[in-house]
Amino acid sequence: MRRQPVDYVPCSTPINPLYEVQRRGRPWNFPWAVPGDGTEYLATTLGTDPVVGLWWLDGMHPDERVTTRVWLDGDVLHKAYDTPAGVLSSAVALNELWPFGRDIPF
Fold first, then answer.
1. CA 31 to CA 54: how far, in whole Å?
2. For residue 53, which of 39, 63, 66 has the smallest C-alpha distance?
3. How far is CA 47 from CA 12, 24, 91, in A?
4. Which pLDDT score is estimated for 60?
5. Would you state the pLDDT for residue 41?
6. What does 30-98 look like in DSSP terms, one character per residue?
7. Contact 83, 63 (CB under 8 A)
8. Which residues are paired to 92 by β-bridges?
9. Is the pTM of this model over 0.90?
10. pLDDT value at position 94?
11. First CA to last CA distance, the chain
12. CB-based contacts of 19, cutoff 8 Å, min separation 6
C-alpha cells in the first residue's frame, strides 16, 4: 500500500463458510464459532497473513462515472459495473441458495 518493494509474497487462504441459507441441513465443520469467517483463526492459529476486506456500501461508488446494471437471463443473474476503464462483470446461477436476492454484491 505504500508502494515499496515487498520482502515476501503474502500467504492468505480465504475460506468461504457459506451463508446460512447455503449451509441449511449441513453441519458446521470449521474450528471457529458460527457465524465467523475464520479470518482471526487463520491469522492467529495457522499464521497466515491477515486479510483486509474492502466493500462498497450499497449505492456508493469510487467515481460518479461508475454505473451498474443487473439483469436476469434465464436462471443466470448478471451484474456489470460500467467504469471509465471498461466493464467489470460477474454472473451467478440464481436459485434458492443464492442469499442476495436479485443482486450480486461487489
1. 25
2. 39
3. 9, 30, 33
4. 61
5. 85
6. SSS-TT--SHHHHHHTS-PPP-----PPTT--SSTT-EEEEEEETTEEEEEEEETTEEEEEEEE-STT-
7. yes
8. 77
9. no
10. 92
11. 21
12. 99
Residue whose grid cell is 497466515? 48
- How far is residue 44's CA from residue 38's CA, in Å, rounded to a whole number? 10
User: Residue 39 in 3-state DSSP?
Assistant: helix
Residue 35 to residue 22: CA distance in whole angstroms = 13
Length of the chain: 106
Q: What is the pLDDT of residues 69-99, one digit of tens each?
A: 999 999 999 999 998 889 989 999 999 888 8
Residue 68 phi, psi (nearest 5): -125, 155
Q: Which residues contact 57 (CB under 8 A, 6 or more apart)?
A: none
Q: What's the one-letter identity of residue 51?
A: V
Q: State the cell numbers at 88.
A: 467489470
Nearest to 24 by CA among 100, 96, 104, 101: 96
pLDDT, tens digit, 9 for 90 and up, residues 15-72? 777 788 888 888 888 888 877 778 888 888 888 887 666 666 665 656 788 889 999 9
d(CA 69, CA 103): 10
